[in-house]
Amino acid sequence: MKFVITLAAVLLASWSVVRAERPAVHGMVVFGETRILMSHLPLFHPPHDWQVIFEVSLKHNTTNISDVYHPSQDAPGDQLYTFEPIPFKLTEMIEHPTAMTGSLYKGHFEKDGQLLLTDVEAAIAQVVFHKKLAPIPAPALQNSYLMIGTETKGAEEVFVIHRIDGKPSFDEIAQVSISSTGNAAGTGECRLNGAAFKIPGGESPLDVGFRGSYVYFLSEDLALSDMAFECNYEVSSVIYNSDEDLQN
Questions:
Q1: How far is the C-alpha of 94 from the C-alpha of 157, rounded, in Å?
Q2: Which of 85, 113, 159, 180 might form a disulfide with 102, Cβ 3.0–4.6 angstroms?
Q3: Residue ranges of the alpha helices (H) in the chain?
Q4: What is the rounded distance in angstroms from the CA atom of residue 50 to the CA atom of residue 45?
Q5: What is the pLDDT of residues 108-142, one digit of tens each?
């Protein structure tokens, strides 16, 4: 009986925490053009303790978004755009994605960013990745990255996003180029296959010119080694890199 009462109390407390979430400003890094993505700027405390990546479409009533948002035309190192939305509940947006309204900035909206547009609608096409952050010690020398992008010929865009697996940590988004080195069955083409790939990294953030590799499987059966080949990637630009909000 005591166990039942204790369990009921725990469940009630958990439900109260969920219900207690209030709308907040959940800032986003905006990147990509062929496929526009938004990455939540997280903290290790609620309600910001989520790493989330949305795929969105941007719309403004009087201005063509591409007139002000064009990262491919910006110099490497100067491609940071951020979005300051009207307060909303992040967990609800993850579970039932709709749209956000807010302001688009060139640079960081909380620092020296330049306001480009207000009243921008960001309609969410899908939640690409989401993970609740746990304030546990980060695994030593085991940084990993998610690979996300588009394979449209002539408009390939590939990005790696640092996966936040514990604290202290850092938030990083970089654009990369990929190429294949062939496989046991012959030659092949490195592809994303519409998925997010996990890439092992080092203990430090990636820098421009950093080179690495990952394994791409032609078959869902990962045991077929002759159906896999190594893909190389090289960091062409670092869009965002900060550790100041992920130390405590």
A1: 24
A2: 85
A3: 2-20, 65-68, 90-95
A4: 9
A5: 999 999 999 999 999 999 999 999 998 888 776 56
